[in-house]
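Task: encode each sequence below as structure tokens.

Item 1
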Amino acid sequence: MKNVDYIIVGDGYAALFFAHQLILNNKSFVVFSEQKKSASQISAGIVNPVVLKKFTTFWKAQEQIDFLKKSLKEIETYTGENYLIDSPIHRIFHDENEQKLWLKKTENTELKNFLDKKFDHLNVVKNDFLTGKVNQSARLNVKGFFDGLMSFLESEGHLIKEKFNYSEINILDSIYRDFRFKHILFCEGISVKENPYFSDIAVIPNKGHHIRVKLSELLPQDITIKKKHFLFPLENGLHFYGGTYDREQLHHDIDDSAVEQLQRGLSEFYPYNFEIKEVHFGFRPTVKDRRPILGHHPEYKNLFVFNGLGARGILNGCYFSKTLFDYIENDLPLPEEISLERFNKKDAV
């Protein structure tokens, strides 16, 4: 029987950023990975403090950006690589009204550090009304991040490549197979619906597609371009374009309508030929109030959940991993905005 402080179930942003907290604090743990491509692992990896449809920001945006940079530097000390790509977002304006709104928002206290007052013109793509740059925006090297972290976890004996079996948990004795644990943390994304302990949490699947394309005319620089969706270069000579949002078509097949939507969206501002080489999709775990869900089981206090990261998986997963660690280990209360118990209070009302 091996004693561990934590069993982590899942292998997306929530699981790996929480594992990082355990590494920092010298906690013993294992990560159960089913070795499937999670929504995190096929995500765009955009690090963005601004809602680019309305030019607004969100709760704790600056704190989350700062904490991500700090955490990635810490991760670099044991993987040997910093996975943050300094590639700012350039939002293509649709018209002069958007330009004026952007400039107005630059005077906003919460937005002035994110919205650049100087507009840019980009070559190759259509941007008749110029573009606005999002300061402090970047990208995560998603493949590098997951490959690097998984390799490290495996080399240190933390990674178990198999599906977790809920029926084999002995909760009263805190035993799972050959492990005696203090805590189990479920970071399963939409697979939480199969979890008998947390299947009723308020996570809503949101299906997202992206395409990987070969451009006939390459972009002149490594930037991230945003109009309807995001366009940026990948390491293999292809470009990422996506992603869509769909809460209705939740089957596990490619939606032709989503691919057509992406083709039209890219054609709107990229006037040259392009060839679709790959189509990918995943299911984001979203929450109605756009806040993640953290907490312990109402009956079994050694079972925890970390879910509902939505489209901001990198920022939410990184920042709130520390919040959850402090809640479990240091008895610091969870903010009501992210606590699992907030839904019970709503039901009570």
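Item 2
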Amino acid sequence: MKRWLDNAETAVANHSDRLNAINIFPVADGDTGTNLYLTVRAAARALHNPAGQDEAIPADAGQSDVGAVLARAGRAAMEQARGNSGTLFAVFLCAAAEPLAGHTRLTSTLLAAALNRAQIRAWSALSDPVPGTMLSVMEAAARAAAAVDAGHNGDDSNQALGKALDAAVNGALEAVVSTESQLAALEAAHVVDAGGVGMLLILDCLRSAVLGEGLQGELLDGLHGYDVQDPHIHADMPVDDGVEVMCTISLSPLSAATLRQRLDEIGESVIMSQVDSLADAEGSYRWRVHVHVPDSVPAVALIRSLGEPSDISVSELAMARDPEPAPVNSSGHER
């Protein structure tokens, strides 16, 4: 799992420019690659930082418990998630960890369960989920892995796991190709979904890490808009007004439902997901909140009316929010 996330950090960093170039949905702000990279990086580096480890997990537990390892990475990703793509990946990672808790190795059946839990949680995190995005890619990967696992009748061999991983990646690839025809904005620009391509890369990194094989270099060949000679397509899109607001906040389930409903009324791309699975002494859970709104002031005031948020960030949608990450080498260090 550590190798998977290290490889994913490297792969997404090296592809971030191309992901940014085709990022036109839900807003053409050209930062999907950057946001996904920063979120994957947070997950990967959490596993190399014992000081940041959750005290509830014994130091040696995370070394052998697959679920504990991914849960730790998922919490770090959720706390530092950036944008739609990063937030959905963080949700994916946290949810995937749950069926793996207490297990010391991955099997075909566990992979299928983890992918299924992850895609369901990602779909439910969004107030208005849309097919033709990385959600569809997650779902296709889960369905493909489940079909292979069902055909092996509980076979827990590495061979069965390999076939399930192959199927998941192939299913994800087919879903990425299909995104173009599922969203009018993508079809008009003749590109596939940027977040979907990023998720495909991450899944191929999982396959590579588990099977001990290299990434499938030809995987992205032929994807519309992904040729390195293509210009930054998002730059020709209309400028998007408004801002992206993100924060972490402790809320009761009722207050969380209220916040989601009221954010839906004033904004778009509302994503809310629990950072932790355990409530505090007052019955509140920590939530990561993401929304696109015309003006940050009413949104932040609304959030503050229900609790005390932390890690508030407000970013313009009309411009890329971070410099593109430097490419990294195979060891995961910036060049």
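Check on item 2: The CA atoms of residues 62 and 69 lie 5 Å apart. The first strand starts at residue 243 and ends at 251.
End of task.
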